[in-house]
Amino acid sequence: MGFLSIDNVTKSYGATEVLHRVDIDVEEGEFLVLVGPSGCGKSTLLNMIAGLEGITSGTIAINEKPMNGVHPSKRNIAMVFQSYALYPNMTVAQNITFGLEMHGTPKPERDEALAKVAELLQITPLLSRKPGQLSGGQRQRVAMGRALVRNPDVFLFDEPLSNLDAKLRVDMRTEIKKLHQRLGTTIVYVTHDQIEAMTLSTRIAVMNGGYVQQLGTPKEIYDNPANIFVASFMGSPSMNLIPAKLRVNGADAAVEIADSKGAPITLPVPADASNLAGRNGEEVLLGIRPEALTDPEGADRNANTVVQLSNVIDVTEPAGSDTFVTTTMGGCDVIGRMRADAEARPGELSELAMNMDKAVLFDPKTEDRIG
Amino acid sequence: MSIASSENAVSTNRVARTFVYLVLLLFALFYLLPLFIMLVNSVKPLSEITGGNMIAMPEVWTLDPWRAAWSSAQIGVEPTGLRPYFINSIIMAVPAVVLSTIFGALNGYVLTKWQFRGHNIVFGLLLFSCFIPFQIVLIPMAQSLGVLGLAGSTPGLILVHFVYGIGFTTLYFRNYYAAFPTELVRAAQIDGAGFFRIFWRILLPSSGPIIAVSFIWQFTNIWNDFLFGASFADADSQPMTVALNNLVSSSTGVKEYNVHFAGAIMAALPTLLVYIVAGRYFVRGLMAGSVKG
After folding, report:
1. Pairs of CB atoms within 8 A across A/B
2. How many CA atoms within 13 Å lie on the side-chain side of B262?
3. Where are the domains of chain B?
4. Which residues in chain A have Cβ-Cβ distances shorter than 8 Å to B197?
5. Structural domains in chain A plus CATH codes
6. Residue B62: what pLDDT?
7. What is the ipTM of this complex?
8. CATH number of B81-287
9. A100 to chain B: nearest residue by CA?
10. How far is Cα A153 from Cα A159, in angstroms, rounded to an integer?
11. Are B183 and A85 in contact (CB < 8 Å)?
């Protein structure tokens, strides 16, 4: 049992079940990110951990104590809201210490805790201001200060960066990560931004339609997606899914796809083919990340199986650090990521290297990973 | 060419604007005329009114009509002036306004931030009370006051106005708090604040404009009410409006128009004062929540 344990938890509104049997164990000091599109139930789950919404069935326990029916203020949690939810009529100092005041902490202790947190977040000069006089980034810090000052067991973040502009968001992301490394607290963080999920977390729970689609480390989620949803949701540009025909011959497997002219290409699948036996000739989807489809010079030298092929480039999009190219395989647009100075011109044939070590196969009917 | 046309544009603009202001000024004067006549005639001796022009400025300036209206004019059978009734009105209006505002705020808070099953029906019923004409409730209200032992007393009037005001004040506060971010309430809950603490520390300090609206609306309505005052008050608890009526419509003796004018102005002063003091919040409060930012 973990530090924060979510055991078989469901949530229903009337007859509609919006969260289905969620099981997540979070160890102390972990940074768990709940990620998914809007309406996937991630905020509902967070609110249930916070105690702002009831639990229909199952158990949520923090530090081995069941929290079902316990009032939010008695769970020893702190929450940072999307809108920051700073009390507009109070100064920054009053905002930060309001929780301590409500819990009856004496004034000298409150002041001490306030000074410590203000120094940590570098907001000491702002303490006598009202939230209305602060910038977005400063408000964000105050909201974090209000959470930190109570020294809670678990921090809950509800899309805390989505109100900031792009540059500030990246800065604050780094700062949240630094803070987590320094304080080693347990964090549950909700976002719809897969990059935030990848960069911040120690583990990710990808959610969709009220189900946890996959729970794992960022690397597991990225390299070994459990199904098509996870594969296409995580990563930008998202994973290419190419219609292919499976060829199984004993322990060897290969997929056959059509190139830009419609001619067949056979690609060996290095993964263990034992669970593919009996699927010979079936239609599958070949999943390949854009960075696994690149120019031959840019290909991963440590990869075992790199297939070189030439294909007509439809569009090139130079992004400065890389050049994204769009080509056609199996009748679909496929995006590759080349080095910035790779030679690729729209409408011309170009050499491409496909790293089959990173290739994954999905069953198009069940949408699950098969190899 | 372009210079000429721009000059043209400016000058038409000026002409149009002068015209608009002129019309506005005329209307303002027209609407202020009754007040002018009341003021002018309240400071002249009666002989000037009965013997001559009502619109003329006084030849002899005097405050005697004001003194008479305040402390010695015949109201009904007693020569008390309007003073005791003015005090009656204040004793009635202030608690009724304060109570209905507090309860409206609490209702609005519960209806938006502590929603329960059927909250919309409750709000609908409260809203419905805004549209019930006073006359319909006269008899049941009289019976209720009788049962409660509050008939013919100032507390009875306070109760009537308080109950009648809740519909309006609830409407104001509910709409104001609907735009108030619920995340603030949730944050305060996690911080450990309870129902009343959240209301008192988080919501009320941000409710200035809507409190002003509720205050002005309720005070104006309660102060100006005649029907409830005439129906439910006895001689000792009659409000200003009823007393003014008794002053003006007494059928014996000489009609002292100058005293009547002074009394009428006195009856109107408190609402004017409230509007001047809190009026700038009024429009702001009514608009609150309708426009983002």
Report:
1. 55
2. 24
3. 2-71, 81-287
4. 102
5. 4-232 (3.40.50.300), 240-362 (2.40.50.140)
6. 85
7. 0.78
8. 1.10.3720.10
9. B191
10. 20
11. yes
